[in-house]
Amino acid sequence: MKEESSQRRFSSCTGVSPVLFPPRIDGRKLVRNASFGGYNELSPSLPGFERGKEDISQNKDESSLSMSKSKSESKLYNGSEKDSSTSSKLTKKESLKVQKKNYREEKKRATKELLSTITDPSVIVMADWLKIRGTLKSWTKLWCVLKPGVLLIYKTQKNGQWVGTVLLNACEIIERPSKKDGFCFKLFHPLEQSIWAVKGPKGEAVGSITQPLPSSYLIIRATSESDGRCWMDALELALKCSSLLKRTMIREGKEHDLSVSSDSTHVTFYGLLRANNLHSGDNFQLNDSEIERQHFKDQDMYSDKSDKENDQEHDESDNEVMGKSEESDTDTSERQDDSYIEPEPVEPLKETTYTEQSHEELGEAGEASQTETVSEENKSLIWTLLKQVRPGMDLSKVVLPTFILEPRSFLDKLSDYYYHADFLSEAALEENPYFRLKKVVKWYLSGFYKKPKGLKKPYNPILGETFRCLWIHPRTNSKTFYIAEQVSHHPPISAFYVSNRKDGFCLSGSILAKSKFYGNSLSAILEGEARLTFLNRGEDYVMTMPYAHCKGILYGTMTLELGGTVNITCQKTGYSAILEFKLKPFLGSSDCVNQISGKLKLGKEVLATLEGHWDSEVFITDKKTDNSEVFWNPTPDIKQWRLIRHTVKFEEQGDFESEKLWQRVTRAINAKDQTEATQEKYVLEEAQRQAARDR
Fold it and tell me: Which intervals hold domain PH (predicted)?
């Protein structure tokens, strides 16, 4: 009885059950890990293990000696209840420290396992060229690399131009019937959530811009049925292998058949599959956020340096508190596991230099800044141009005269919507979905009052042209990054991506620009949609764009207006907004210019209505209370609080970045030298035509 009592005391102190779990041949012991609810081996090299081993042998010796002692000696050995309780608490505390160390060590090893899988070129399930269908239903040929748990997509085979990373753990795969040649299959999220990671394997914040790809699925085409079947089998294996990107603490009894060599120098796919089969009964699955966090371990996840410094200060304070409670323990975090390779060192990325925008033009509210009187010389140019077109014709291939050009690219103009991106930062923090929708609509309206003076049209971007800029948020100390690229010339498609990870939102989309001629007027139609995502909520707000209408080409005053119906919809919450941009009636007064009306809805129920002018005051009226108040008004105070835009330093821009690409045309237009501007514009357009012929 005394021996059993001694064993029970030891078991309660160290968490070891010698009856249920006898010692192994190799002499290693098991420690109960409360965090995972399982028994985990401690390597004999751990400092805590040697201490526990000595305690075991010492207790066994004392237990055997107690059998031969007298009754009084036995009472002396047992001691008082107070001493026994104190000793038990101390031993439990030491055991908890060992468990915490083991927990931190296993986290590091799991991180190293995933990182080595992503970066090690030897861990590849399959790699080949595949065609992927974009949101505009056009196919793009991309280099796809399949690894356990992830599908990496690149523009080229050299893995230099990363497009995106698909997280496979939540995906399903199904064959898709198709009339076209080859084999088609679909990779999708069953709940229509995003399947994409937000950063690349080397910390890329923005991937190479291609044809816009869907967010919740991918439709993929292989060249032949055999290749397609092979890809489907490989994807199914990789889907199962996503459970291997997990914590490696495994319960006793599940690991007898899994032998991991400490001399292993790299992870093999066979070993990953074998390990997965052994533990397929356990639900050791990582969710999207865990895989993404491991995928981007050791990468810069911050919008700017200040975010990283603040986070490091927080970590340091936590480490100080932890250190005070564990001063007597030996740090075991430096123990290396030879079963996993060290990732290759990545060269630090050079941060792009952005400079503050020196000049910004804001047009006046009302009709005055949207009209222009054409000179007689320019009228003759317009008549010459009109002879080449007919009503209903698409003007996308027509070369326009330079006097109607605004001296900046269309990619630059698309960034006008983000000078009040701080409204989106506020919306991301808003708990009420209705108020969140109102802030999104308010941000949407804030992008229209900035307009050039007169009737101007931006440059048509050259194929491959890019534009980058950012806005600094002084209140949240974050940055909103913007990048756009012309991904197609005929038809002209512009793709863009906006991101502020710290404030929790990103926005992406593509615009197909079309123009129609109607005799005395023409319309610039912007087809496509933008998708605003709040990262911490998983909400997507899909929105469209109004069209620009220019009238008075042959007679009357040339005037530019906005028209059409815009929809802003969040499928997850059920809230939506409908905005109608109204054209001025034929007999309307100046007060009828730039009118807008709208509705805020939950399902089919109208919650509020909007009325006003999109470049000035907009009023909102609640349907229940019938109260009306100002919803949006770009007053001078509001304009003063516009975020300041920063563009890439001119010396660091690439040859195909908008400012550098169009610099000579812009210089000539600003100097009012239309002849020089026309010549320089022709040089760029001819170079683009020659490049198209060479392709």
Answer: 123-240
